[in-house]
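Provenance and format

Records in this collection were gathered into a single text stream. Each protein contributes a sequence line and a token line. The two records reproduced below are adjacent in the stream.
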Amino acid sequence: MATTSIFVNLQISDIATTRSFWSALGYTFNEDFCSEQSVSLEIGPGIYAMLLTPDHFTTFTVRPVASGETEAILALGVESREEVDRIADAALAGGGAKAQDPQDHGWMYGRSFLDPDGHHWEVTYMDLSAAG
């Protein structure tokens, strides 16, 4: 099977706020795809979020752009419960908001937050060897 990358495109309101928020969570940006209108958040190998200012975002679609609604929940799988807490705590400290109460199912643990632009993110750790 061929390797596939994914680029999720999201509208943001402010480049500086976005850079500061995601940097505080420990993520980096691919500067080759950053400009005054967009930043390319590197989530993992081959996984990127293209974070675009409103004017730039609208150049990628002919449909109306949703605002203030949940259109998608973006989930990040991490390698430990501690990493879930680290990312969620950093998100809340850096200007994000709590989206849901923490979920602890023993083998699966997750927390969620809304980023400064209101996008809903889940951070989850799963221990599949302990799943029932």
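Adjacent record:
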Amino acid sequence: MTSERPPTEHARAATGTAVSRALFLILGLFFTGLGFVGAFLPVLPTVPFLILAAACFTRSSPRLERWLLDHRHFGPLLRDWRDKGAIPRRAKWMAGGGCGLGFVLFLWGSTPGWPLTLAVAAIMGFGVVFVFTRPDA
């Protein structure tokens, strides 16, 4: 007759850590995929997804985090964001222009009512204000 003891605190913590690491790894890979797709599709952002991916890899895979931070094209942007919360001026203007173009296309391609128009304008405006109030990289 064997009596099974409940797992110790250490065993439960190790299991929780392994599960959370796996979850962060999966999320990091997902965000990396979205970021790289966004590099080729103008309607999908790139760097915000890679920032999320780097944050997930910080908690799951130091090797993948280092790969992103050392990436030839995206690494400098990610390091500027991580170190100083900074966004390059060119990226700020591209974000503002993209939001403006997106809003015009939204209005042109649909017939939204005033509440939806105001909601979309407010959300886009908040995003543009946030981006432009970050330090320049």
